[in-house]
Write a structure and sequence with these properties.
Elements (H helix, E strand, L loop, with lengths): L2 H12 L8 H7 L4 H12 L3 H19 L4 H7 L4 H12 L3 H38 L5 H22 L1
Helix pairs in contact: 2-3, 4-6, 7-8
Length: 163
């Protein structure tokens, strides 16, 4: 990638998302005209600088929705957008409004936490059953089939949750 484009990308990321960066300012930082920067940037990234910066904002917003307890309005302010434009742009980018994305993320997190508990319980039961099998002379086939069913049912639950 062209070093000037890399420098502009680093400048976009380090400037803070709530700060408006003008194309002139970005172009001046790398010694190009605004039109030449736009042409070069688009050739290297496939996006105009303005669109690339908006995408960086949406990625930051997505990260905040996934990892923080902030409200949609607060996240919009943090990335330098008003709420209505943020909701519109987020939905265009990810196909779902940010409020719904946050709720789905919380639901997914709860399911993952539940899966960890189930997995832990299954491991305990698996350990218990295998210990029983190894300490008893003449392995009990019903215990082995229980172990197999625990392992397969666990993987089925995980596959069902992923859908």
């Amino acid at each position: 990638m062209d070093q000037r484009v890399e420098k502009v990308i680093k400048l976009m990321a380090s400037a803070g998302f709530n700060r408006r960066l003008s194309l002139s300012e970005l172009a001046q930082s790398v010694g190009l005209s605004p039109s030449r920067l736009t042409h070069l940037f688009k050739a290297e990234t496939g996006l105009a600088p303005r669109c690339y910066f908006k995408l960086l904002r949406m990625q930051k917003a997505k990260e905040l929705l996934e990892t923080s307890a902030l409200k949609v309005k607060e996240i919009a302010a943090l990335i330098g957008m008003d709420e209505s434009h943020f909701v519109r742009d987020f939905q265009k980018t990810y196909g779902v409004p940010p409020g719904r994305y946050k709720v789905q993320g919380l639901r997914t997190k709860a399911l993952l936490d539940e899966a960890k508990v189930v997995e832990s319980a299954d491991k305990d039961k698996y350990t218990e059953l295998t210990k029983d099998c190894s300490t008893q002379p003449g392995t009990n086939e019903s215990s082995l089939s229980s172990v197999i069913s625990i392992q397969s049912s666990h993987s089925c639950r995980a596959a069902t949750r992923e859908k």
